[in-house]
Amino acid sequence: MPAFSYFIVMQFRQYIALVALFLSQLVYAQVKLPVPLNIAAAYNQQTRSPDGSPGKNYWQNTADYTIKVDFDPSTRLLKGTMAIRYINNSPDTLHEVWFKLYPNLYKKDSPRETKVSASDFTDGVAIQQFVMNNKALDVSRLNIDGTNMIVPAEILSRQTTHFQIAWSYTLNKGSHVRTGQVDTGAFFIAYFFPRIAVYDDIDGWNENPYLGSAEFYNDFCSFNVEISVPKDYAVWATGDLDNAADVLQPGIYKRVQQAGQSDSVVNVITEADLQQSAVTTGASPWKFTASNVTDFAFAISNHYVWKAGSLVVDKQSGRRTRVDVVFNPRHNDYNEVVNYARKTVEVMSYTFPKWPFPYPHETIFDGLDQMEYPMMVNDNPLADKEATITLTDHEIFHTMFPFYMGVNETKYGWMDEGWATIGEWLISPCIDPAIVDDYGVKPYEKNAGSERDLPIMTLTTQQKDPAFYLNSYPKPAFGYLYVKDMLGDELFTKALHYYIRQWNGKHPMPYDFFNCMNTGAGQNMNWFWKRWFFDNGFPDLAIRNVKKAGSQYTVIIESVGGKPVPIDVTVYFSDQTVQKIHRSIACWKAGNKQVTIEFSSDKKVDKVVLGSTYVPDVNKRDNVYKVRL
Ligand SMILES: [Zn+2]
Fold first, then answer.
1. Residue 201, domain member (yes or no)
2. How many domains in the chain?
3. 478, 504, 534 - which closes a domain
């Protein structure tokens, strides 16, 4: 074709494409996400904005917790006193204050969704003193209902209220649900103090009881915590250890300082140190402070070794994060965890989500769970290297969601677990290129489209497995991955950073996320959000036909299940070579049921195969097309 007529044809094609684009945008600009009334009210009150940013009337409450706890490993009795300064930033008068007594998960008569052995039942949290604004309440008349405690109050908007509380409970020995005894000399202690529930612009008080399955929702608060433990016990916690020079022996203290400046790994506590009782000075308490975090957890041990190393997480400021891995020296699998953890922090800071790791340190503690806390992780040892890597990066990735971004995990598990899932999919191969992390893919393929498969937007509190698992982990992770694939890394990162900047340190809801991504990417992706997060349907593509005209091949792909998934086609030629063809979810934007893929080749095609690791498909029998042309 001569260049001139080619130019005319191209112009005409571009014109047609522009008209088509305009028409499709006309149609798809109309896609509106269904907004429930309690969310719509937030837009009317301008606490949230349609563009995804916090509204001009956005508010959230906060508190300063000054806590003193004493823990006796031999009896597992935890005794605490604390002062809370609570600030009601809402426009409302609060007629009651809801507290969370998380250790009541183990109280004999508490409702719960996780199993607790009868031998691990406790009497729950005993409150010895409860003072509100210098007025003591009769503790025998406190209204305690499972893990909730409701206290009558009269707190005006913008008013500050002071509480003083003394409490105690016995830490669980078995039935380890995110906290408890690890062995006779190691304990992971979380959710250990009565704390004020979130009061927000969507629901008012978070009345959802903690039942052991759905996770947490906490306000950003400051913590000043003093922890007393017997000599020879070292303490690791959320926040900075302010009196490290007093509680650690000089040699150990020096190594911690060194690790904070060193790119290589330092053995801070060795087995020899433990044998010589040369770790702690015996001074007590251990003093920690943390500000603007959603929770405070700590772990103690008298026989764990400690490996640490740090890295620059922000090249502009030179700020470093220290990674601490603390474990039973008999668990050899843990020796490499410090390297996996350092690499995770590096990839998070520079590749995905490409955001400087927001905290000064991160402790991975050898425990009995697979659970995240601000600046802390409680991970069981695993014999398998791949499982160790994927677990380590998954839990550390939670630093961003839900801790830096204060999402309501109780209602929207997908706003944190979905991110940790795509986090481990993307980061694990950076640690070990041999890994193909397909966490959650097969369970989704097994259940997708069945009556057990509910829309992701179903509240987490209203789900049980397998819907609970699928909607928290793989399904949202696919959603994020597909948008990343459609936008490309640069634009996706720009959109995600827009969301992170708007909402870090705050409480984003699903609509804030969708709207921020639309605004940040500069394109309305409601067509996809609606079909992936709200609608029914299942991932199932089929090859309906492969046609040949001269050297031109045409492959007809049909979406049987209606869920928009990327298309990965592998063409196998008779000379043993292959060609891969990829289409992002954008190819389904118009609501079309079929997509036509064309390629030209002079070689003979044997077969065409659909599918790849991250494209689940409930029926794979129609994914292979043997070509007999
Ligand atoms: Zn997780």
1. yes
2. 4
3. 534
Confidence of residue 30 (pLDDT cuts 50, 70, 90): confident
592 CA to middle of ligand 1, Å? 35
User: DSSP label at 546?
Assistant: E
Does residue 1 carry a pLDDT above 70? no
Instruction: Quote the ligand 1 centre to 210 CA distance (angstroms).
Output: 17
Tell me whether residue 184 is in a domain: yes
With DSSP H G I counted as helix, E B as strand and the rest as coil, what are the percentages for the chain, rounded to 5?
A: 30, 30, 40
Q: How far is the CA of 473 from the centre of ligand 1 (A)?
A: 8
Does residue 3 have a pLDDT over 50? Answer: no
CA-based nearest residue to 390, from 473, 496, 300: 473
Contact assessment for residue 349 and residue 357, using Cβ atoms and an 8 Å cutoff: yes
98 with 6, same domain?
Answer: no
Alpha carbon of 597 to ligand 1 centroid (Å)? 38
Nearest-angstrom CA–CA distance, 516 and 344: 26
Q: Which domain holds residue 167?
A: 63-243+284-302
Of 398, 403, 396, 364, the residue nearest 381 (C-alpha): 364
For the full predicted model, state whether its pTM sits above 0.85.
yes
Q: 417 CA to middle of ligand 1, Å?
A: 5
CA dihedral 483, 487, 488, 490 (to 10 degrees): -110
Query: Separation of 506 CA from ligand 1 center, angstroms?
Result: 20
- 420 CA to centre of ligand 1 in angstroms: 6
- Model pLDDT, residue 8: 45
The DSSP call for residue 213 is: S
pLDDT at 7 over 70: no
**Distance (Å) from CA 5 to ligand 1 centroid:** 58
Same domain, 529 and 599: no
pLDDT per position as a tens digit, 146-178: 999 999 999 999 999 999 999 999 999 999 999
Q: What is the reported pLDDT for 2?
A: 41
In this structure, the answer to whether residues 165 and 231 fall within a common structural domain is yes
Tell me the torsion sign for CA atoms 345, 351, 352, 353: positive
The answer, yes or no, to whether residue 382 has pLDDT greater than 60, is yes
Are residues 548 and 523 part of one domain? no
> Mean pLDDT over residues 69-75, rounded?
98
Helix (H) or strand (E) holding 388: helix 385-397
For 70, phi then psi, to 5°, come to -125, 125
What mean pLDDT do residues 281-293 have? Answer: 97
Q: How far is the CA of 115 from the centre of ligand 1 (A)?
A: 19
| Same-domain check for residues 174 and 288 | yes
Stretch 495-506: mean pLDDT, rounded? Answer: 98
Average pLDDT over residues 558-576: 97
CA of 266 to the centre of ligand 1 (A): 28
Which of the listed residues 302, 333, 350 is the one where a domain comes to its end? Answer: 302
CA 509 to ligand 1 centroid distance, Å? 18
Closest CA to 199 of 70, 275, 98, 118: 98
Q: Find the 418 Cα to ligand 1 centroid distance in Å.
A: 8
Residue 273 CA to ligand 1 center (angstroms) comes to 34
Do 607 and 559 share a structural domain?
A: yes
Residues near ligand 1 ion, CB 5 Å cutoff: 417, 420
Contact 530, 506 (CB under 8 A): no
What span, in angstroms and rounded, lies between the C-alpha atoms of 494 and 486?
Answer: 13
Integer Cα distance of 19 and 28 in angstroms: 14
